[in-house]
Amino acid sequence: MDLQDAQALARAIQKLFNDAHKVIDDSQPVSELAARVTEHLSCALRDLVCVTQSFQNWEHASLQRGVDAYLETRGEPAWYGVSGQGRSHSDTIDILTMSRRGFEHFEIGAVDYATTATGPDQTIDVVTFGLVETFAPDGAPILIGMRGPAEMFRREGCRVEVIAASRASATAAREEIERLMRRHDVMRGQILTFGVSEHRGNSLVTFLPRPALGPDEVILPEGVLETVERHVAGIGRHARALLARGRHLKRGLLLHGPPGTGKTHTVRYLMGRMPGVTVVVMAGTALRAVSDAAALARRLQPAIVVVEDVDLIAHERRFSEEGSPLLFTLFDAMDGIGADADVTFVLTTNRADLLEEALAGRPGRVDLAVEVPRPDPVRRAALLRLYGAGHLAEPDLERLVTRTEGMTASFFKELLRRAVLESLREDPAPDRPGMAHLTVALEEMLHGHEALTRSLLGAPRPAPRPVPRVTDGTEGLLSE
After folding, report:
1. Going from the N-terminus, what domains does the chain have, and what CATH number goes with each?
2. What is the per-residue pLDDT for 170?
3. Neighbour count for residue 304 (Cβ, 10 Å)
């Protein structure tokens, strides 16, 4: 037998096996699940096409809204699930195929749901495993499957699967679902923070309530608050006009100053003044997700990305001649956002000296740096009034101001709380402390044993005392 005869024999044997497999396959009893799908799609299982799109865990609620919006215009949806061992780590098309061939016993079952957050106080149920029969934009029948994360099998994120006889029909439906998902994004206009969430089914993003602060509640030097608000909110109000004149929208704000002077409080004021703006707050270990935060901000613009205590990552520069990788990741995220994006990066720091060299070496990331200093006497009096001492006579108020030089807003907030507690010990009826209660609280906080407390509340640290020199008595003799 020559080579050509051998090749012909091999092809004939292969065809024989394929034909036999098809005959055996077609003779298998069709499961109820496979029959339902093939009847709706009018197509054999082996000819089906599946188009899949995956998303991050925190986008599950938005995906659910996108699918719901897609189904809303195509009749009443009838979701059903799948029961059977091994379904969690198998794709839907594989489940249908195995069900058809009798490899696994899969049946129509209940839909799997989970609860996830859509706001600080709102949740919705999302499908973590379910199928629904509907139609593509071109009218072709399709099957939509939604899947949630399967942590046991190291499958993260959520995804949508569109199964159809035509790839074009499946792709068109998948694109329309994603378009509707972006339109109904639950994160738009919210305040978000990356980290571990307290909400079930959402382990990466937490929704925070939007603060409501008036300008009289932010005690800063004259003109500082107006400058900050004009830079952050004012540019957004004139976004279209600026773009029409060829000006960029992306901006960076650095708030620097000692701890406790009101940097975070100022940021909270900005959040409240911009109710339609998405805010992503990054702090602590969440800073490692700054690239995801920047991408989210660009998609949901107008947006603000708040990076608190950025000096903590800048401080890592001392361990490497090249600098902090995390700091450079932040800079890269700020660069990659695009000049036309209506996104503000707001950085806060207690140590501007650690950042100045890095920011100066890569100019354009921050275009406004504002110092938030320790309050002067006028501002200290304003803070005392704000936190509950406004009823005091002016001479008493002046005495408190004089004795609290160098103290910050955090110090005054704690001072008034202690004064209230002192008044409650005497009489639970009064709703505000008197000068005597404030004096007792202040004496306690200024006492030597609370030096660390004052430091933690932002008070200046005392200069170290000089160490006395110890000699053997010969120093004076040698100098003569």
Report:
1. 25-183 (no CATH), 210-371 (3.40.50.300), 377-456 (1.10.8.60)
2. 96
3. 26
